[in-house]
Each structure stands twice: as C-alpha cells, then as structure tokens.
C-alpha cells in the first residue's frame, strides 16, 4: 500500500518533474511556459503535470481574466508530509549517532 510520501517520492524521482517543481517554486506558470523551459512538447509536459497533480504536489486553476488559461502552482501539504517523514528519519539517525558516540566515549575511558 502506497502512502502519500511514497507517491511524492515516486513523482520527484523524475528529473523533469523536479525541474517543474523548481520552476513553480518561483511562481505559478502555464503548461506552455513549463514545456518551453524544459525543452519539451506540450503533450510531454502534460504527462509530467498529470503525475504531479495525481500525487497532490501541483494544482491547476483558471485565470480570472481568461477562464481558458490554466495555471499550475505548488501545493504545500505534500511537501509538509515529506518534511515530517524526513524529520523522523533524521531523528532516527541522530539517536543512532548519539548512541554510537556515547559507546565510543565509554570504550575510550576503559
């Protein structure tokens, strides 16, 4: 069973999708802008955007001025879930390294 974090990691495993995320960190963009910056066709970037939308990293909205124009933007929630998981992993390794450090100090004193 895949979790939200699993889906995010799978989506971010692709370098093109990471590039899209980097572009969207700067500001919301149209799919055409993302395709141009990635040097890809519109259908190709659309497939990547579909993956990013499916895992919740990206959402699409229509512009107020022109409802036909779709703009993609990042969503914070999946990144927060990923950060929470990374914090747990980091906590585990911090505990392990502290325990090893204590062990090494104890052995040195013997």
From TrEMBL:
Residues 1-91 form the HTH arsR-type domain. Keywords: DNA-binding. Pfam families: HTH_5 (PF01022). Gene3D superfamilies: Winged helix-like DNA-binding domain superfamily/Winged helix DNA-binding domain. PANTHER family: TRANSCRIPTIONAL REGULATORY PROTEIN. It comes from Actinophytocola algeriensis. The keyword Flavoprotein does not apply. It comes from the Bacteria. The lineage of its organism: Bacteria, Bacillati, Actinomycetota, Actinomycetes, Pseudonocardiales. This is DNA-binding transcriptional ArsR family regulator. GO terms for molecular function: DNA binding; DNA-binding transcription factor activity.
């Amino acid at each position: 069973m895949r979790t939200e974090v699993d889906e995010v990691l799978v989506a971010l495993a692709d370098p093109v999708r990471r590039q899209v995320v980097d572009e969207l960190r700067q500001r919301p963009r149209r799919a055409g802008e993302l395709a141009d910056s990635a040097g890809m066709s519109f259908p190709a970037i659309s497939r990547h955007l579909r993956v990013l939308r499916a895992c919740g990293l990206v959402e699409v909205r229509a512009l107020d001025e022109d409802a036909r124009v779709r703009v993609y933007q990042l969503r914070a929630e999946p990144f927060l879930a990923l950060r929470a998981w990374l914090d747990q992993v980091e906590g585990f390794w911090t505990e392990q390294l502290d325990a090893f450090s204590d062990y090494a100090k104890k052995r040195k004193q013997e």
